[in-house]
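>> Question from a student workshop board

For tomorrow's exercise we were told to take the sequence and the ligand below, predict the bound structure, and bring the output to class. My setup keeps failing. Could a helper post the expected result so I can at least see what it should look like? The ligand is 6-O-phosphoryl inosine monophosphate.
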Amino acid sequence: MKVDVLLGMQWGDEGKGKIVDVLTPEYDIIARFQGGPNAGHTLEFEGIKHVLHTIPSGIFRDGVMNVIGNGVVIDPLVLWKEVQALEKLGVDVKSKLLISKKAHLILPTHKLLDKASEEAKGGKKIGSTLKGIGPTYMDKTGRNGFRVGDAIASDALTRYRALVEKHKHLLSLYGKEDESFPEEDWLEAIEWLGTMQIIDSEHYLNKAMAAGKKILAEGAQGALLDIDFGTYPYVTSSNTVSAGACTGLGVAPNRIGDVHGIFKAYCTRVGSGPFPTELKDEIGEFIQTTGHEFGATTGRPRRCGWLDLPALKYSAMINGVTHLHMMKADVLSGLDEIKVCTHYQTANGKTEDFPFNIEEPNVEPVYRSFACWQEDLTGITEYAELPKALQSYVEYIENATGLPVSIVSVGPDRQQTIARQALMA
Ligand code: GDP
Ligand code: IMO
Ligand code: MG
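>> Workshop helper replied:
Here is what the output should look like for this input. Compare the format with yours to find the bug.
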């Protein structure tokens, strides 16, 4: 069997958690491959909303294993709290969650470094979630990191202390050497981590594949936040694209199957960075309010704007997307018209390609307008029942991308999901 990948095609928060949960019954294993507690993946069913940060979104379904892969960075305190919250709800997390020995750990001092780095950038700050993501991946690539497997080794404390000393030195360069951090809680969380199922996840996943098990790799963030292909430097510090599933799980490129690309019927972005189709007017406010566009991790308001086709097509290309899933069409109901950016105007003329620099004034979005639908979509269960204006919008996107829109999501609940065809071959 091959590994399917599910990822965000925009700047994150597309609705990945919801669709992973919807697709989970088709799989045996759900595996997160990158990112960390900067992610906030929301699932809603039976009237309850759940937000997951580190744990894969398959955790609520029975008979499915959930893997935190080597490409993920883990804050043991955040993970512990997440597990406790799920256990309170009766979810048997311990038996269903496997953690890679090679995943890197976020130390309390990584979070201090994240904050110090952002403060030092002043007006050019990234708008990081301040969860310690950047500094932890820097230690990974700098070959100084502290992994789950290191934390359960006999010399763990010595290695931890050596890294903290290094961080204190770095903090002193920012004038922040005296900042305190909750070391005792963190060390306790490390002890707890040792009681979880810690595995060589690349072996586990490849053996599962050989045994015919179906695996879905769950991405975090979105392609436009990718460290290589996103709107650098306003990005996260990992490869959010489908290739990240290979390095973040130990799955060879020729074992990747379908790639599910999740996008909203419009665009949002939280944090700093260019956003050519951003709406800084009452339509943007309407989308923000109606779509509850506030960060699932930080609560920050999400900036809102029109769908950006050059960006979507770029994302489809880089990721090898095979199925598109369109989220939150219900949010736009009631607008007079909606717009889609079809091209950018640049100093070198019109382009449909996503340019190197999309900061103002390098690109000017060129729009096409569409009639919007007025109906409440949230109770509709069949594609044929959707308003014609929405069907035209969906079909326009299919033509523009050359890809099928396989799911149209019309509300946050698991059941508010219209699948247009059998999703699995
Ligand atoms: P993720 O990070 O990609 O998993 O997305 P988030 O959970 O951060 O943000 C998506 C938000 O939209 C969550 O609050 C979801 O409950 C909600 N949501 C998902 N799909 C839909 C939809 O089709 N319609 C509406 N109105 N909300 C949705
Ligand atoms: P999910 O998985 C939306 C953004 C931050 C900031 C930039 C860098 O829920 O879609 P970082 O904390 O990684 O240093 O922040 O990336 N960001 C997200 N935006 N959804 C996310 O995750 C994000 N994770 C990080 O706002 O702009
Ligand atoms: Mg999110």
